[in-house]
Design brief:
Elements (H helix, E strand, L loop, with lengths): L1 H11 L48 H5 L6 E7 L4 H9 L5 H20 L3 E4 L4 H7 L3 H13 L8 E3 L11 H8 L3 E3 L8 E9 L3 H12 L4 E9 L3
Parallel strand pairs: 1-6, 2-5, 5-6
Antiparallel strand pairs: 3-4
Helix pairs in contact: 4-6
Length: about 230
């Protein structure tokens, strides 16, 4: 019965390809030819932030000069190959992209996720005003699919965003950390976890992850890892 309802739903509301935004072939979440447009970050990547390395070494230039609060993280795609999709995902009401992208993150980053031995998955939250305007949190949609694939419990309300910060894309790198100071708090009366994977759509300077990790570490979490859909250069 569930399979039948799923077929009927897809006939009435066909899925859109997250790359070209056209109707995907029936039973598919992406056009076969469009998948080739998505560039997965391959080795070598930074051992700290997961950003694609352009030069030899274990760490990118940013991580060599900046002390991050998280243990380490990985991103799935090179940002330039997926930025149009992420823009529509966030700002043009395409929450259905989350199912495909979440599955790809789980499938391609599974070995890293297993390595973390995380006890919980926590999406980066939106401020309530921004979520009300958008109607959904794209990080939650990704985290939900990853949680279902890994059986790691999802804690969607573990972190709260109490500061309605300006969009980071509008700020130079030097101002992003100050913009996010004290932006997150850990919810009261939540289960205490030792190790957490934080999920977001994009990793750029690491400012968001550092502030989220700071709040989590101050609450008693011992280790914070992260996964994101895309990793961008600075």
């Amino acid at each position: 019965m569930k399979k039948f309802l799923k077929i009927i739903t897809e006939l009435i509301y066909p899925k859109r390809c997250p790359v070209c935004d056209k109707t995907a072939p029936f039973g598919e979440k992406i056009c076969p030819g469009c998948r080739e447009e998505l560039k997965i970050i391959t080795s070598p990547w930074c051992m700290k932030c997961g950003r694609k390395l352009e030069e030899e070494g274990a760490y990118c230039k940013d991580c060599l000069k900046k002390e991050h609060r998280f243990v380490c993280g990985r991103s799935l795609y090179e940002y330039k190959s997926v930025y149009g999709s992420i823009y529509r995902f966030k700002y043009e009401n395409r929450p259905e992209y989350g199912e495909f992208f979440g599955e790809e993150m789980y499938r391609n980053l599974k070995s890293f996720i297993d390595y973390t031995k995380a006890e919980g998955i926590v999406p980066i939250p939106l401020h309530r005003k921004r979520q009300r305007k958008r109607g959904y949190n794209q990080a939650y949609l990704l985290a939900k699919v990853i949680s279902e694939g890994t059986d790691i419990p999802l804690y969607p309300n573990y972190l709260k965003r109490v500061k309605n910060t300006a969009p980071l894309k509008l700020l130079p790198p030097a101002q992003r950390q100050n913009n996010l100071k004290k932006a997150f708090i850990v919810s009261q009366n939540v289960v205490k976890l030792k190790s957490i994977i934080v999920v977001d759509d994009i990793y750029t300077t690491g400012s968001t992850m550092d502030e989220a990790a700071t709040a989590l570490l101050e609450s008693g979490v011992r280790e914070v890892f992260f996964v994101t859909l895309a990793g961008a250069g600075i």
